[in-house]
Amino acid sequence: MALTLAEAAKLSNDIVLQGVIETVIQDSPILQALPFIEITGNGLTYNRENAAATAAFFQVGDTWTESTPTFAQITASLTIVGGDADIDNYLLTTRSNVQDLQSAVIRLKAKAVQQKFEDTFVNGDTAVDVKSFDGIDKLTTGGQASSMGVNGATLTLAKLDELIDLVKGGTPDLLLMSKRTRRSLNNLARTAGSFLQTDRNDFGQMVQFYDGIPVGVSDYISDAKTVGTSADCSTVYAMQFGEGALAGLTSPGGLQVETIGSLETKDATRTRVKWYVSTALFNTLKVAKLTGVRP
Questions:
Q1: 136-241+287-294: what fold?
Q2: Nearest 5°: CA angle at 42, between 275 and 137?
Q3: E strand segments, 1-57
């Protein structure tokens, strides 16, 4: 069963860990919606559907033709992302609000882990960093990639609708874009005489919706990609989450906070925030991207 980090936090009795999870999901539309599958071992081998089976009409006496779906066997290995947070023992001893100090340091480290995961979720490439995992930009290829043109162009609602239609088997669960592209989308909606729908999510935050699909913003989607002769292009992603679509992979227990203890070389106490994590795309038709989006 796949759980989001928010649901996993509800099952944790560790107050520190709950605080860490709340920190990492607070500002990340990806982690707020992405479900995670707990796996035992260092990876998951699964069959990714490449082509669906077909069916046809036949008359009496016709020769029936066989058609089966095709699959590619994929192995997603868990990667290790995390960092150590050292707290000076002098400060722990002399400051009265010790728990506040510890919480602040751990919270900042958890934020760094969240940012590293989100950057890799979008831009990860194992050909560049073998310790990481492939992100949605690399996973989205072939017919699931649309373009604004040879040299890019400004966003249009028609192109955004085309992107949404590339995701098969239901509407996307999230449209992910840069802040600049979201401003363009808001401007398009106002020009059309309407506004994007707005509602509160499960975390009490105001979220915009386009055609009923949540619009998420990521600081790790570049606005300086080169498409043709244009070097000011961005990308919009549409994705569907779930065990048959795009999901995260995590070890049992998920995000972990581990107390290392006193250090030998300095007067400090170390806490480690770590996560054994990866992603799995079970069906390539569940993710699509629109490239060449110019301001």
A1: capsid protein of prophage fold (3.30.1930)
A2: 65
A3: 2-3, 36-38, 43-51
Q: Which of 28, 31, 45, 73 is nearest to 241 (CA)?
A: 31
Distance between CA 16 and CA 102 in Å, rounded? Answer: 10
Domain chopping of the chain, boundaries: 2-50+71-134+244-281, 136-241+287-294
What are the φ and ψ backbone dihedral angles of 135, each rounded to 5 degrees?
Answer: -90, 180
pLDDT in tens, 113-169: 889 999 999 999 999 999 999 999 999 987 899 999 999 999 999 999 999 999 998
Q: What's the predicted TM-score (pTM) here? A: 0.85
| Two structure tokens written together for 32 | 């707020």
Cα separation, 153 vs 137, whole angstroms = 19
Class of the domain covering 2-50+71-134+244-281: alpha beta
CB-facing half-sphere around the CA of 210: CA atoms within 13 A: 24
Length of the chain: 295
* C-alpha–C-alpha distance, residues 128 and 100, integer Å: 39
Instruction: Let me know the angle formed at the C-alpha of 43 by 78 and 142, rounded to the nearest 5 degrees.
Output: 85
- Token pair for 239: 């994705």
